[in-house]
Amino acid sequence: MADKTHTDPQRMEKIVSLCKRRGFIYQAGELYGGLNGCWDYGPLGAELKRNLKDFWWRRTVQERDDVVGMDGAILTMQQVLTSSGHIGGFSDPMVDCKTCKGRFRADNVASMPCPEKPSCSVGGSPKCELTEPREFNLMFKTKMGASADESDPNATAYLRPETAQSIFVQYKNVLDSSRVKIPFGIAQIGKSFRNEINPRNYTFRSREFEQMEIEYFCHPNDGMRLTDEWLESRLCFYEEIGIPRTKLHILDVPDGERAFYSKKTYDIEYEFPFGIQELEGVAYRTDYDLGVHQKGAGRSLEYFDEETKEKYLPHVVEPSAGCDRTILALICEAFDEEVLTDDKGKEDVRTVLRFTPRMAPIKVGIFPLLKKNEEQVRIAKEIQRTLQPWMNVFYDDGGAVGRRYRRQDEVGTPFGITIDFETLGEGGEELKNTVTLRHRDSMEQERLPIAGLLAWLLERVR
Ligand code: GAP
Known about the structure:
Layout lengths: L8 H13 L3 E3 L11 E3 L1 H20 L4 E3 L5 E3 H7 L1 H4 L1 E6 L6 E3 L28 E4 L3 E3 L12 E4 L4 H15 L5 E10 L14 E11 L4 H18 L7 E5 L11 E9 L2 E12 L1 H10 L5 E3 L4 E3 L2 E8 H12 E7 L5 E7 L10 E5 L5 H14 L5 E3 L5 H11 L3 E5 L14 E6 L5 E5 L3 H9 L1
Parallel strand pairs: 3-10, 20-21, 20-22
Antiparallel strand pairs: 1-2, 4-9, 5-6, 5-7, 8-9, 10-11, 11-17, 12-13, 13-14, 14-17, 15-16, 18-19, 22-23, 23-24
Helix pairs in contact: 2-8, 3-7
The structure holds glycyl-adenosine-5'-phosphate.
């Protein structure tokens, strides 16, 4: 059984530093001091995120006959969130400290260092003076239109706190316009916003984040079974992107800790360097969501089964994953420092991100051995042009080739192609028009014909 309290702050520090240094993640607004709880993804982070979202979409929507996609608005009507219960109840308990003027999530104070005396937790120093907890609504509220009137409910909108609500609200439209039949799912990837009291653990708890959610509509008799099936399917997904099952923990949320309408909830947790924490929830939400919107809108959302002639309100199973949390898990899982010993016994540390090739931001580095050799450069550029329409590649002709390999190891590029003198035929006819292909993880090298490179790579990076 894994130790839930085990943390490795030094490893986390190295990961955060690498992410900034190599262009994965920056703090939003850093030039002006930073916007707390918001993050920008740099060139490599954006590629990584795109790979994750594209693969999730492919496996969840395109390769299934029973799931369709949608892309809902972020600005959300007040009525939607009143019906869903977010306006009345989407809050965390908050306390203030009258001494340091800090605000803290009441249920987290024991694990938060006191800003004035970090050796103590919040409330643990004799000087701390905490107020009674009070509820703080986590939604960002805004006004729509030029003549926004405070008292006009139609002028008030919210940044959505989850992508799920637009799916429930459009469920009937999707049903009527897509020829889907129960059971079927609607999937969505998009931004959500929560005014978290204490954003923490890097991107893990942010105020702006992306979710990848599926609302799977089913017959009431099938909800429990489908919850277990979705759990299994989501665990397979994590394995396919390079997060092994041994690092995942399934929390079967006990009675009394689940949302009141949920009959079953599994949290899929990952061993982050800051502790075992939730990546995704798989929840059986019964007919709660369609029920509240049916009532709120005064429109029937019932389903009529043509075959059985049965009419019922569908139940919902919801696998809801955090995109940013999965990105963080991918980076934490991939990060490695390998000690290498050279022929003279000298030790060196190689930093390497061992991303699975389908997630890697750059699939292949392309290196002419000598920058000044026109023929090598010409062939390298030609290979670049051939591969570019299919995958993200990186051309690098600067410095010793060993150093170029290391730069790519550090950002997780699984393959390196070197165009050398053998490529030009100087090592004999049989090696002409072949390149050196280097594997990131083993550092082993092999020779491959240029003509077969694209097919060889496509088989490994998709
Ligand atoms: N529709 C259900 C729902 O939103 P949730 O457990 O509140 O459920 C689902 O959120 C997932 O969204 C979480 O498992 C997590 O991965 C991600 N998530 C939630 N709040 C987050 C935050 N403040 N920062 C980053 N990701 C978050």
